[in-house]
Design brief:
The chain is α+β, with helices and mostly antiparallel strands and 148 residues long. The protein is 47% helix and 22% strand. Helix 1 (3-39) runs antiparallel to helix 2. The chain is elongated and about 65 Å long.
């Protein structure tokens, strides 16, 4: 398995974990709402209101995670490009990036990659740039040394 395939697999695994966590949280909230409704006949809706709010938030998070999963399915690991694009590994003089989704730090084969979104501030600076392009971010000067 190539480094690109492994990085994509790790991103997918982390998004799958998020999906499962949100689904579990939603089920727990639904159970709490059901038990709250059964055991509460005095008209105190403050607990149910907070639970419904939490349910709505988690449903939104779940929806976002599903969109991320769909987005990751667009990444082709066998495409090579001379410019940074979705799915590229970008090596710079400062750190390595994997252009996919905002997952953060990934350690793989004694290397560290930062999985970032195209829409992130640094992703916007990298996208469509060729090797030897330099840019500044957070007072650091970066030079793209390799695109895989």
């Amino acid at each position: 398995m190539t480094t690109k395939q492994r990085l994509l697999q790790i991103c997918n695994e982390r998004v799958d974990k998020r999906l499962n966590d949100y689904k579990e949280e939603i089920n727990l909230i639904k159970e709490s709402i059901d038990s709250n409704d059964k055991g509460n006949s005095e008209g105190d809706d403050s607990g149910s209101g907070k639970l419904l709010n939490d349910l709505e938030k988690n449903m939104s998070y779940l929806n976002d995670a599903k969109k991320t999963k769909d987005y990751l399915s667009n990444i082709k690991t066998n495409v090579e490009s001379k410019e940074v694009m979705l799915g590229s590994i970008v090596k710079t003089n400062v750190m390595n990036f994997y252009i996919a989704t905002s997952i953060g730090k990934i350690e793989l084969d004694d290397q560290v990659f930062y999985a970032i979104s195209v829409n992130s501030p640094i992703g916007q600076l990298l996208i469509n740039k060729p090797v030897n392009t330099s840019f500044e971010f957070n007072q650091n000067k970066y030079v793209i040394t390799e695109i895989i």
